[in-house]
Design brief:
Blueprint lengths: L2 H23 L4 H25 L3 H29 L8 H20 L6 E4 L2 E7 L1 H26 L5 H30 L10 H19 L5 H12 L3 E6 L4 E4 L1 H4 L12 H6 L2 E3 L2 H10 L5 E8 L3 E12 L5 E10 L1 H43 L9 H18 L3 E8 L2 H8 L1 H18 L5 E6 L2 E7 L3 H17 L2 E5 L2 E5 L3 E8 L11 H21 L5 E3 L10
Parallel strand pairs: 14-15
Antiparallel strand pairs: 1-2, 3-4, 3-8, 5-6, 6-7, 7-8, 9-11, 9-14, 10-11, 12-13
Helix pairs in contact: 1-2, 1-7, 2-3, 2-7, 3-4, 3-5, 4-5, 5-6, 6-7, 13-17, 14-15, 15-16
Length: 567
């Protein structure tokens, strides 16, 4: 094998070493993946040159020649794309634009692979180590030169842009040297080994050496300047995504950083001097400007803020906050200014104030409606919980109330009693006087009972002519006394009724059953308050039945034992 082949192999090994070094020494991001693909394409050139000189098989030589020129064709497009990442403008590229950028490189590579009629390269005496180039070789050369000039234009535009940070400018300048080196060596290789091949001996490895040297420049940018550092990229992205305007000043007041949110509203550039006092003179300020500026000049170790109003095409309001930037020794070496856009909030406040009078006027009508609704709800609640005829509570309310009451009473051993009474021979009253008079008797009887019981007692119409009284905190003896008082009040009550032209008084009596819960045992209670309540109702109903059996118009005491606390 000729020394030329070993030289290309050495350069391939060095490129591979660089590849491994970058791969293991940086945090891999999507940008690094693009670079690794680009680096792999560049490694194919020296490897294919070595392999072509290593084999004597013309078909394999043809294969390695094709691989090397396909790789170098794609490298041109890769270089151009990488310049967008270097200048932090990759977000401007759409998917269709990326395809258009890579299309010439892919077409050039396809022509190399096809080599129609030897239009790209032909062997000399069957040996591709010595070969002649056709028209398509110069097409590939023109494509690569076009990528070179496009990359230069993109990099120069970034250098001249006022929005490019000093760090990015430094990265771009070093990368330019890498492009110069690669293009220079590739052009020198084409000129000496293609144009002047008839007069000069072959000089090996020029393009491979240019690729290696350009990679050195690029690796330097990656490692020393952290062009693809994950933390730097994340910090830059976060700062530009924050909706607040951010302005970073050094201790002399020079602008070090302006994020996108602020650059869209103010014409501020990195490297310019920012005079806060002059700036505040151009805007409308709400607050004490003198105190604000005095704090800024004294560089106090705290944040302070003020509200400003900027007149542009529309009126915009900002909260301007200034915070000192301190080093590890708490020494001042810069300021951080944030511009929080509160235009929408101020508009909403103004709009709320404007509508406040309208709301106050509507509040009066709403208060009237609310009162009417409250009264309607009260009446509706009465309809739901009370008996429409007697104005007593109904059975539904009684059951709901007792379910809660008896559970509390049994748990804390609080005595209580129930009275169930029934109007004696009420069917006879209906048959003799009619249902209208019967309803009147029910109403007057409930009114008398209400007057005879205590204010804490609950009277409910249990059904038909039956009523139940719940007596909280009432033991057996007191319950019997109250029941007797109710029975006597009803017996003495006379209900006047009109029968034709005559006026007659109707008198009724009641039979009463009483159950008093004032002794509690330790045995297991009923499974639930509802079941326990059913048992109580059954006990008081039996007592009422006994009162009727013993002649009516009397009080009978029922029994309910084995009452334990409901847990």
């Amino acid at each position: 094998m000729s020394p030329k082949g070993w030289f290309d192999l050495a350069l391939f090994i060095l490129l591979f070493v660089l590849f491994i070094y970058v791969f293991i020494s940086v945090r891999v991001t999507s940008l690094h993946k693009v670079y690794f693909l680009f680096h792999s394409l560049m490694m194919l050139w020296p490897f294919s040159q070595f392999a072509m000189n290593w084999t004597e098989n013309p078909d394999l030589q043809r294969l390695f020649v094709t691989i090397s020129f396909v790789a170098i064709s794609l490298v041109g497009g890769g270089w151009f794309l990488l310049t967008f990442f270097l200048t932090r403008t990759e977000a401007q590229l759409s998917q269709s634009q990326t395809v258009m950028i890579l299309a010439p490189a892919v077409i050039a590579a396809a022509g190399v692979v096809l080599n129609i009629g030897g239009d790209f390269a032909l062997p000399v005496e069957g040996d591709y180590v010595h070969r002649t180039y056709g028209l398509w070789f110069w097409v590939v050369t023109v494509v690569l030169l076009s990528y070179f000039f496009a990359a230069l234009l993109n990099l120069f535009r970034a250098i001249r842009s006022p929005h490019t940070s000093p760090e990015v400018r430094k990265q771009v300048k070093i990368t330019l040297w890498g492009i110069y080196v690669l293009t220079g060596f590739a052009c020198l290789d084409s000129f000496l080994n293609v144009v002047l091949d008839k007069w000069l001996p072959i000089i090996p490895g020029l393009t491979s050496l240019g690729i290696f040297l350009s990679c050195l420049f690029f690796v330097y940018v990656i490692k020393k300047l952290n062009v693809f550092d994950l933390v730097s990229i994340a910090q830059e992205d976060i700062i530009n995504r924050i909706p607040y305007g951010i302005l970073v000043l050094d201790e002399q007041g020079l602008i070090m950083k302006v994020n996108k949110a602020l650059s869209l509203t103010r014409d501020l550039r990195v490297g310019d001097r920012f005079e806060l006092a002059s700036f505040l003179e151009t805007v409308k300020v709400t607050g004490d400007v003198e105190t604000f500026l005095e704090q800024y000049k004294q560089k106090e170790y705290q944040s302070f803020r003020i509200e400003i109003e900027v007149e542009s095409r529309t009126e915009r309001h900002f909260i301007l906050q200034v915070s000192p930037i301190l080093d590890t020794y708490q020494s001042f070496f810069g300021s951080l200014l944030t511009f929080q856009d509160v235009t929408q909030e101020r508009f909403l406040v103004h709009e709320l104030n404007r509508q406040n009078e309208m709301l106050q006027e509507r509040n009066q009508s709403l208060d009237h409606i609310r009162s009417a609704l409250s009264e309607a709800n009260r009446k509706l609640e009465e309809l739901v919980l009370t008996d429409s005829l007697t104005d007593c509570y109904n059975r539904r309310y009684l059951t709901q109330q007792l379910t809660h009451e008896v559970s509390t009473n049994t748990r804390y051993r609080i005595p209580f009693s129930l009275i169930l009474f029934d109007i004696d021979h009420f069917k006879t009253v209906n048959d003799r006087y009619g249902h209208v008079i019967g309803d009147e008797v029910l109403l007057r009887t409930s009114q008398v009972v209400k007057q005879a019981i205590r204010s804490t007692d609950i009277l409910a119409r249990y059904g038909g002519e039956e009523f139940m009284i719940y007596l909280p905190h009432t033991e057996q003896q007191l319950a019997l006394q109250l029941a007797e008082r109710v029975r006597l009040s009803v017996e003495l009550n006379q209900v006047p009724v009109e029968l034709g032209q005559a006026l007659e008084e109707v008198s009724v009596t009641i039979s009463m059953g009483v159950v008093a819960i004032d002794v509690f045992s330790e045995e297991d209670p009923a499974e639930s308050p509802e079941e326990y309540l059913v048992q109580l109702f059954s006990a008081v109903d039996k007592a009422l039945y006994q009162a009727k059996e013993k002649g009516r118009n009397r009080v009978e005491l029922g029994q309910y034992v084995n009452v334990a606390p409901l847990i």
